[in-house]
Specification:
It is built from 13 helices and 24 strands. By secondary structure, the chain is of the alpha+beta class. It has 3 domains: about 220 residues, 3-Layer(aba) Sandwich (Rossmann fold); about 80 residues, Elongation Factor Tu (Ef-tu), domain 3, CATH 2.40.30; about 110 residues, Translation factors (Elongation Factor Tu (Ef-tu), domain 3, Beta Barrel), CATH 2.40.30. Strands 1-3-4-2-5-6-7 form a 7-stranded mixed beta sheet, sandwiched between helices. A 6-stranded antiparallel barrel has the order 8-9-15-12-11-16. The chain has a 6-stranded antiparallel β-barrel with strand order 17-22-20-19-23-24. The longest helix is centred in the middle third of the chain and has 17 residues. It is globular, with a radius of gyration of 22 Å. The structure holds guanosine-5'-triphosphate (GTP) and magnesium ion. Magnesium ion (MG) binds next to helix 4.
Length: about 500
Amino acid sequence: MDIEEDIRSLQLDSAEENNGVVNPGDARPEEVEVVDKMEEVKHKEVSAVEDAESQQETEGNNKRHLNVVFIGHVDAGKSTTGGQILFLSGQVDDRTIQKYEKEAKDKSRESWYMAYIMDTNEEERIKGKTVEVGRAHFETETTRFTILDAPGHKSYVPNMISGASQADIGVLVISARKGEFETGFEKGGQTREHVMLAKTLGVTKLLLVVNKMDDHTVNWSKERYDEIESKMTPFLKASGYNVKKDVQFLPISGLMGLNMKTRVDKSLCPWWNGPCLFEALDRIEITPRDPNGPFRMPIIDKFKDMGTVVMGKVESGSVREGDSLLVMPNKAQVKVLAIYCDDNRVRHAGPGENLRIRLSGIEEEDILSGFVLSSVAKPVAAVTEFIAQLQILELLDNAIFTAGYKAVLHIHAVVEECEIVELLHQIDLKTKKPMKKKVLFVKNGAIVVCRIQVNNSICTEKFADFAQLGRFTLRTEGKTVAVGKVTELPTVSSSA
Ligand code: GTP
Ligand code: MG
């Protein structure tokens, strides 16, 4: 295994450059409780689109499907841009917009009406902040997209992690308004934390939209746009993105809907010769997934509806009505009764799709989010211990990282307490080779290989075999302290 390339793919080389060390936000202790509560309610559907959606024919619709997560600092305009996309693609009528305009005005939040399309909870509308990941669907020429609108506020980072871990591509929204880009980008701003998390969680391509170009402090200024691009570029590189290949910058106004469905008018922005947002989304290329691989669908939610229904994104393989599968880690044998893709019943579905699957053979209360619906012949590994390579980002109060360190592990849809039981060896940042000296503790910026234990069995895979199920983050008291990848699993683990 080429360790150097491997490290790069997890942006573990970022510690070499100072500007690559990510500085996640300081979460006050009282915020932690909010985070924990929020973890219970991670997903909401945007109902404005349901009618349009149920008329769509999914089977026989050969367009590819991609999950796109909207990330970025609080108030950057993620929900407004997401709402505008739905409006421009004809899924929200004028009457609904007028209703939202009135409601926003009544709450003294006039400019928030577009965000109300995505922010459907009363709490979100009152505070003007997304809490749960909003979901909605739209199509371009080549692709069916599911939008996952993540919250920007630092208290809700676990919800953002859940959204990003289901995403194929990301739209990083940056506000160009005077002072707002700066706050988001500085130490403690979520622009940095979100980029680092997105990369770790497998979001390989980013569209970086410089938003609020209409704002009176910006006025479609080329200088401001160039300034943001030039400051973001080194940071994105240090976070492991190949900026030329994997990142596309473009200016938009989410609120006005400009440079979104059609290119911005030259009279307003004479210097922009690039694509609009829909074109850029349409053109994004990602590595095709293997429809014949072993079936893997991490379960993000479940409910009772004439049986047990589980919800998730297919990370590998395909599923058909009538298939026998296993729910891991509890090895429950189940049968697929029905498959729903964007609310349409389908007989089979391939990788990359967001599905609801009705199962027989298991009760809803016997499933937890983070369980994985898996092939019987090649079930996903279920373990209580694994070996991983970690990059330490920023420990609380610059604490040292030793055996006995406890944190919350976020891996695909799993959120579980874990303990570092042994540090095996440290990786030399220069040579990228394991150091011979025995290691008892490490500090910020270090790369270390260690043994990690969890109390309850979790489903995972080696990063080398299955990146999406083998990358993770460690968080303590509301802060991301490390990112990592699973390098070894106990040998007996996967026997079903
Ligand atoms: P969180 O969900 O809390 O992280 O915020 P968000 O990124 O979803 O931001 P949201 O869409 O709620 O917008 C925040 C504020 O910025 C609202 O007042 C919007 O009207 C305003 N805003 C968003 N996009 C634009 C834009 O293109 N131009 C201008 N002028 N204002 C915008
Ligand atoms: Mg929002």
